[in-house]
């Protein structure tokens, strides 16, 4: 690995700044966020000195700094970095460049995570407008913009706008990737989640099942993502009062997770509790008691382990 403390930035060329930017991006992909952050900071110092305050490479560095902080849940800092990237890219490219749209989209998403939804909508819509000007109608980045807008509208309980954006995202995703693709499964999942939050459980179940079908085709029926799909269906059935159906889905999820993660994984105890609750609602008290006992044993073991670590 390159050392970060060597030569002074004054003696460096822009090429070295790009090297540090690329290294930081690789570290970011590996989840090594603090190392990535240091690389990008060093790249920024070099590029400011060698290329000035307004260069595309410097804008890319600030965008990376923003995505790093976003991944670390430090959304205020992420917003600041994205705003610098927006300023640079606006100065260089004007208001019709895909990189600028990316920065608008990134800042909008961080604002959404900060629950500053109205501000988030403004930035996300700017990003969408640019992408619609720059790209063809069916482009993956336009679907991404619609998905992000839908999340914000859903948080604001503006379900009509959320539904419109989700449907547009789904149509584009199916056109770009086809029906059997993880992104299409995610679009169906988003629609299911939205209808679930509205209490429209039958519609939620339909979309969750479509997502699960695709996930099974893509990843198989022993993959953790398929377990999540089964859990989602189970929660919707439970909320709809269809406890027998919910048990089947919860148990499928449980079997997959036990096989993949082992019986002591953090998510396992919660599943035992969910199944126990569904059996209890179904009037099957003996089955409920067995699952509750296992749940208590798992949570007690977890508490003991936590105390031991202290």
End-to-end CA span: 35 Å
Count the beta strands: 0
What's the CATH C level of the domain at 6-116? Mainly Alpha
Mean pLDDT: 91
CATH architecture field of the domain at 6-116: Alpha Horseshoe
CATH fold group of the domain at 6-116 = Serine Threonine Protein Phosphatase 5, Tetratricopeptide repeat
Report Rg: 24 Å
Structural class: mainly alpha
Number of helices: 14
Structure description:
- The chain is mainly α and 310 residues long.
- It has a domain at 6-116: Serine Threonine Protein Phosphatase 5, Tetratricopeptide repeat.
- 81% of the residues lie in helices and 0% in strands.
- It has 14 helices and no strands.
- The chain has helices spanning 14-29, 33-51, 56-71, 75-93, 98-113, 117-134, 140-155, 159-177, 182-197, 201-219, 224-239, 243-261, 266-281, 285-309.
- Helix 2 (33-51) packs antiparallel against helix 3 and helix 7 packs antiparallel against helix 8 (159-177).
- The longest helix is centred in the C-terminal third of the chain and has 25 residues, at 285-309.
């Amino acid at each position: 690995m390159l050392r970060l403390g060597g030569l002074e930035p004054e003696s460096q060329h822009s090429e070295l700044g790009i090297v540090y930017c690329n290294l930081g991006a690789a570290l970011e992909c590996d989840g090594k966020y603090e190392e990535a952050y240091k690389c990008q900071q060093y790249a920024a110092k070099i590029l400011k000195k060698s290329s000035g305050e307004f260069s595309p490479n410097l804008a890319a560095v600030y965008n990376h700094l923003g995505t790093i902080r976003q991944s670390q849940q430090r959304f205020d800092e992420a917003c600041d970095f994205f705003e610098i990237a927006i300023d640079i890219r606006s100065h260089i490219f004007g208001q019709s460049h895909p990189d600028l749209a990316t920065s608008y989209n990134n800042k909008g998403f961080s604002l959404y995570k900060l629950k500053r939804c109205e501000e988030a909508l403004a930035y996300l819509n700017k990003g969408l407008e640019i992408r619609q000007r720059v790209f063809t109608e069916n482009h993956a980045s336009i679907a991404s913009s619609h998905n992000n807008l839908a999340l914000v509208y859903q948080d604001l309980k503006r379900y009509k706008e959320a539904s419109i954006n989700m449907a547009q995202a789904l149509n584009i995703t199916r056109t770009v990737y086809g029906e059997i693709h993880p992104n299409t499964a995610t679009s169906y999942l988003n629609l299911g989640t939205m209808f679930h939050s509205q209490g429209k459980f039958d519609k939620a179940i339909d979309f969750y099942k479509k997502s699960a079908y695709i996930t099974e085709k893509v990843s198989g029926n022993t993959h953790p993502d398929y377990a999540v799909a089964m859990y989602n269906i189970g929660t919707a059935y439970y909320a709809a009062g269809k406890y027998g159906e919910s048990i089947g889905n919860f148990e499928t999820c449980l079997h997959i997770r036990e096989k993949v993660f082992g019986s002591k994984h953090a998510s396992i105890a919660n599943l035992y509790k969910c199944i126990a609750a569904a059996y209890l609602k179904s009037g099957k008290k003996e089955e409920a008691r067995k699952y509750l006992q296992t749940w208590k044993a798992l949570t007690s073991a977890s508490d003991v382990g936590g105390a031991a670590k202290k």
